[in-house]
Design a protein that fits this description.
Blueprint (H helix, E strand, L loop, with lengths): L3 E4 L9 H14 L9 H5 L6 H12 L5 H17 L9 H10 L3 E5 L4 H10 L8 E3 L12 H10 L6 E5 L2 H9 L3 E4 L16 E2 L16
Parallel strand pairs: 1-2, 1-4, 2-3, 4-5, 5-6
Helix pairs in contact: 1-4, 4-6
Length: about 220
Protein backbone atom coordinates (compact mmCIF):
# COMPACT_ATOMS: atom_id res chain seq x y z
CA UNK A 1 0.00 0.00 0.00
CA UNK A 2 1.25 3.47 -0.88
CA UNK A 3 1.71 5.64 2.22
CA UNK A 4 3.82 8.56 0.99
CA UNK A 5 4.18 11.02 -1.89
CA UNK A 6 7.63 12.48 -2.43
CA UNK A 7 8.27 15.56 -4.55
CA UNK A 8 11.27 17.06 -6.25
CA UNK A 9 11.20 20.89 -6.22
CA UNK A 10 12.87 22.71 -9.12
CA UNK A 11 11.03 22.44 -12.44
CA UNK A 12 8.48 20.11 -10.85
CA UNK A 13 6.71 22.26 -8.24
CA UNK A 14 8.04 25.53 -9.60
CA UNK A 15 10.05 26.43 -12.70
CA UNK A 16 13.19 28.24 -11.55
CA UNK A 17 15.57 27.15 -14.31
CA UNK A 18 15.86 30.66 -15.77
CA UNK A 19 16.71 32.16 -12.37
CA UNK A 20 19.31 29.47 -11.69
CA UNK A 21 20.99 30.02 -15.06
CA UNK A 22 20.89 33.82 -14.68
CA UNK A 23 22.58 33.51 -11.26
CA UNK A 24 25.22 31.13 -12.62
CA UNK A 25 25.84 33.46 -15.55
CA UNK A 26 26.33 36.37 -13.15
CA UNK A 27 28.72 34.35 -10.97
CA UNK A 28 30.89 33.69 -14.02
CA UNK A 29 30.89 37.42 -14.83
CA UNK A 30 31.76 38.26 -11.21
CA UNK A 31 35.00 36.34 -11.65
CA UNK A 32 35.76 37.76 -15.08
CA UNK A 33 34.67 34.70 -17.02
CA UNK A 34 31.91 33.84 -19.50
CA UNK A 35 29.11 31.37 -18.79
CA UNK A 36 29.11 30.54 -22.51
CA UNK A 37 32.66 29.21 -22.25
CA UNK A 38 31.46 26.38 -20.01
CA UNK A 39 30.93 22.94 -21.51
CA UNK A 40 27.61 22.33 -23.22
CA UNK A 41 26.84 19.58 -20.73
CA UNK A 42 27.21 21.98 -17.80
CA UNK A 43 25.22 24.76 -19.47
CA UNK A 44 22.29 22.65 -20.64
CA UNK A 45 22.28 19.32 -18.81
CA UNK A 46 22.46 20.07 -15.09
CA UNK A 47 18.75 19.63 -14.27
CA UNK A 48 18.18 17.62 -11.10
CA UNK A 49 21.78 17.79 -9.90
CA UNK A 50 22.92 19.34 -6.61
CA UNK A 51 23.55 23.04 -7.07
CA UNK A 52 26.75 22.84 -5.02
CA UNK A 53 28.03 20.16 -7.42
CA UNK A 54 27.18 22.44 -10.35
CA UNK A 55 29.11 25.31 -8.78
CA UNK A 56 32.05 23.00 -8.11
CA UNK A 57 32.08 22.06 -11.79
CA UNK A 58 31.95 25.74 -12.79
CA UNK A 59 34.90 26.41 -10.49
CA UNK A 60 36.82 23.48 -12.00
CA UNK A 61 36.07 24.24 -15.66
CA UNK A 62 36.90 27.95 -15.35
CA UNK A 63 39.85 27.28 -12.99
CA UNK A 64 38.54 29.88 -10.55
CA UNK A 65 40.61 30.76 -7.48
CA UNK A 66 37.49 31.59 -5.45
CA UNK A 67 36.52 29.12 -2.75
CA UNK A 68 33.48 26.95 -3.29
CA UNK A 69 31.91 28.28 -0.08
CA UNK A 70 32.26 31.83 -1.41
CA UNK A 71 30.60 30.83 -4.69
CA UNK A 72 27.77 29.11 -2.81
CA UNK A 73 27.10 32.23 -0.73
CA UNK A 74 27.15 34.38 -3.85
CA UNK A 75 24.70 32.06 -5.62
CA UNK A 76 22.34 32.11 -2.64
CA UNK A 77 22.39 35.92 -2.47
CA UNK A 78 21.86 36.31 -6.22
CA UNK A 79 19.05 33.77 -6.19
CA UNK A 80 17.28 35.50 -3.30
CA UNK A 81 17.52 38.90 -5.03
CA UNK A 82 16.20 37.49 -8.31
CA UNK A 83 13.37 35.65 -6.54
CA UNK A 84 12.30 38.86 -4.81
CA UNK A 85 12.22 40.63 -8.17
CA UNK A 86 9.98 37.97 -9.75
CA UNK A 87 6.35 36.99 -9.33
CA UNK A 88 6.73 33.24 -9.21
CA UNK A 89 3.91 30.78 -9.73
CA UNK A 90 3.82 27.04 -8.99
CA UNK A 91 3.44 24.66 -11.92
CA UNK A 92 -0.17 24.08 -13.07
CA UNK A 93 -2.15 21.79 -10.79
CA UNK A 94 0.63 21.08 -8.29
CA UNK A 95 -0.87 22.93 -5.31
CA UNK A 96 -4.20 21.18 -5.86
CA UNK A 97 -2.42 17.80 -6.04
CA UNK A 98 -0.53 18.47 -2.80
CA UNK A 99 -3.73 19.56 -1.00
CA UNK A 100 -5.55 16.43 -2.21
CA UNK A 101 -2.72 14.21 -0.98
CA UNK A 102 -2.65 15.99 2.39
CA UNK A 103 -6.40 15.47 2.80
CA UNK A 104 -6.22 11.72 2.09
CA UNK A 105 -3.89 11.81 4.15
CA UNK A 106 -0.55 10.68 2.75
CA UNK A 107 2.85 11.40 4.23
CA UNK A 108 4.50 14.10 2.13
CA UNK A 109 8.19 14.76 1.59
CA UNK A 110 10.32 17.10 -0.48
CA UNK A 111 13.60 15.77 -1.84
CA UNK A 112 15.55 18.56 -3.52
CA UNK A 113 19.07 18.86 -4.88
CA UNK A 114 19.03 22.50 -3.77
CA UNK A 115 20.66 24.01 -0.69
CA UNK A 116 18.44 24.26 2.39
CA UNK A 117 18.40 28.08 2.63
CA UNK A 118 17.30 28.32 -1.01
CA UNK A 119 14.73 25.51 -0.72
CA UNK A 120 13.20 27.09 2.39
CA UNK A 121 13.05 30.48 0.67
CA UNK A 122 11.15 29.01 -2.27
CA UNK A 123 8.62 26.94 -0.35
CA UNK A 124 7.96 29.83 2.03
CA UNK A 125 7.25 32.13 -0.89
CA UNK A 126 4.77 29.74 -2.52
CA UNK A 127 2.99 28.83 0.71
CA UNK A 128 4.26 25.26 1.16
CA UNK A 129 6.49 25.76 4.21
CA UNK A 130 4.39 23.45 6.40
CA UNK A 131 3.20 21.03 3.72
CA UNK A 132 5.92 18.40 4.09
CA UNK A 133 6.62 15.87 6.83
CA UNK A 134 10.27 15.65 5.73
CA UNK A 135 12.49 17.93 3.66
CA UNK A 136 15.73 16.50 2.29
CA UNK A 137 18.20 18.95 0.70
CA UNK A 138 21.53 18.73 -1.07
CA UNK A 139 23.53 19.11 2.16
CA UNK A 140 21.86 16.07 3.71
CA UNK A 141 23.54 13.56 1.40
CA UNK A 142 27.06 12.75 0.28
CA UNK A 143 25.94 11.83 -3.23
CA UNK A 144 23.27 13.65 -5.22
CA UNK A 145 20.89 12.34 -7.87
CA UNK A 146 21.14 10.03 -9.89
CA UNK A 147 22.65 8.23 -6.87
CA UNK A 148 19.85 6.57 -4.84
CA UNK A 149 21.00 8.19 -1.57
CA UNK A 150 18.58 11.19 -1.60
CA UNK A 151 15.45 9.10 -2.04
CA UNK A 152 16.71 6.26 0.14
CA UNK A 153 17.26 8.76 2.97
CA UNK A 154 13.79 10.22 2.38
CA UNK A 155 12.16 6.79 2.76
CA UNK A 156 14.17 6.13 5.94
CA UNK A 157 13.11 9.44 7.50
CA UNK A 158 9.47 8.85 6.55
CA UNK A 159 9.78 5.37 8.12
CA UNK A 160 8.37 3.66 5.03
CA UNK A 161 9.60 0.83 2.86
CA UNK A 162 10.55 1.95 -0.66
CA UNK A 163 7.50 0.21 -2.15
CA UNK A 164 5.26 2.35 0.06
CA UNK A 165 6.33 5.61 -1.62
CA UNK A 166 5.76 7.31 -4.96
CA UNK A 167 8.20 9.93 -6.21
CA UNK A 168 7.19 12.73 -8.57
CA UNK A 169 10.11 13.80 -10.79
CA UNK A 170 10.74 15.99 -13.82
CA UNK A 171 14.42 15.12 -14.45
CA UNK A 172 16.13 12.02 -15.80
CA UNK A 173 18.64 11.91 -12.93
CA UNK A 174 15.80 12.20 -10.43
CA UNK A 175 13.90 9.31 -11.96
CA UNK A 176 17.10 7.24 -11.92
CA UNK A 177 17.65 8.11 -8.25
CA UNK A 178 14.10 7.17 -7.25
CA UNK A 179 14.13 3.86 -9.11
CA UNK A 180 17.58 2.93 -7.82
CA UNK A 181 16.26 3.54 -4.30
CA UNK A 182 13.44 1.07 -4.99
CA UNK A 183 10.59 3.61 -5.03
CA UNK A 184 7.77 3.97 -7.55
CA UNK A 185 8.08 7.03 -9.76
CA UNK A 186 5.70 9.25 -11.74
CA UNK A 187 7.38 11.45 -14.32
CA UNK A 188 5.98 14.95 -14.83
CA UNK A 189 7.86 16.76 -17.65
CA UNK A 190 8.52 20.49 -17.59
CA UNK A 191 7.45 21.71 -21.07
CA UNK A 192 9.76 24.72 -20.79
CA UNK A 193 12.91 22.83 -19.81
CA UNK A 194 16.06 23.95 -21.63
CA UNK A 195 16.86 20.30 -22.29
CA UNK A 196 14.11 17.72 -22.84
CA UNK A 197 14.37 15.12 -20.09
CA UNK A 198 14.16 11.38 -20.75
CA UNK A 199 11.62 10.12 -18.17
CA UNK A 200 11.04 6.71 -19.75
CA UNK A 201 12.39 4.87 -16.68
CA UNK A 202 9.47 6.22 -14.64
CA UNK A 203 6.62 3.82 -13.89
CA UNK A 204 4.07 6.31 -15.19
CA UNK A 205 4.33 9.64 -17.05
CA UNK A 206 1.63 12.32 -16.90
CA UNK A 207 1.64 15.55 -18.94
CA UNK A 208 1.30 17.79 -15.85
CA UNK A 209 -0.29 17.86 -12.40
CA UNK A 210 -3.60 18.97 -13.88
CA UNK A 211 -3.84 15.34 -15.04
CA UNK A 212 -3.06 13.88 -11.61
CA UNK A 213 -5.76 11.97 -9.71
CA UNK A 214 -5.64 10.28 -6.33
CA UNK A 215 -6.55 7.00 -8.05
CA UNK A 216 -3.02 6.99 -9.48
CA UNK A 217 -1.70 6.40 -5.96
CA UNK A 218 -3.54 3.07 -5.89
CA UNK A 219 -2.29 1.80 -9.26
CA UNK A 220 -0.24 -1.39 -9.21
CA UNK A 221 2.74 -0.19 -11.18
Amino acid sequence: MIRAAIFDLDELIIDLEKIHKAAERQICLDYGESFDSLSEDLRFNSSGRRENDILERIKHELKLSASLSEMIRRKQNLFADMMNAEIIQPMPGVLEAIKALQAHPYLLALTSSGSRPRVELVIEQIGLRDAFDQIICGEDVRHGKPNPEPYRLTAERLKISPLEGIVFEDAKVGVQSAKAAGLWCIGVPNPDAATVQDLTQADLIIPDFAHFTLEMMDLHF
